[in-house]
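Troubleshooting log. The previous structure file for this entry was overwritten by mistake, so regenerating from the original sequence record. Sequence copied from the archived sheet and checked twice against the printout by T.R.
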Amino acid sequence: MVPRDEVGLWSILKHCIGKELSKITFPVIFNEPLSFLQRMTELFHYTHYLNIADQCDDNVERMEVCLLYFLFDYYLH
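Regenerated output below.
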């Protein structure tokens, strides 16, 4: 894997001038979160499930909703 500092967006675009847009490929590193702050805030995207779990009276249902929160966070990020 190439470090992000060594790969520049402009250097990739410079080599793609004149190509069809559907043929241009970018490294996966450009789709990653831009900063540590953004990565940390992504953890709070599905916290409404934790609020729902807090309101559940049944322990099993509470555990299911908490598991749903963790699975959404794990699989979607």
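Helices lie at 9-15, 36-42, 48-55, 59-76. Archived copy saved in two places this time.
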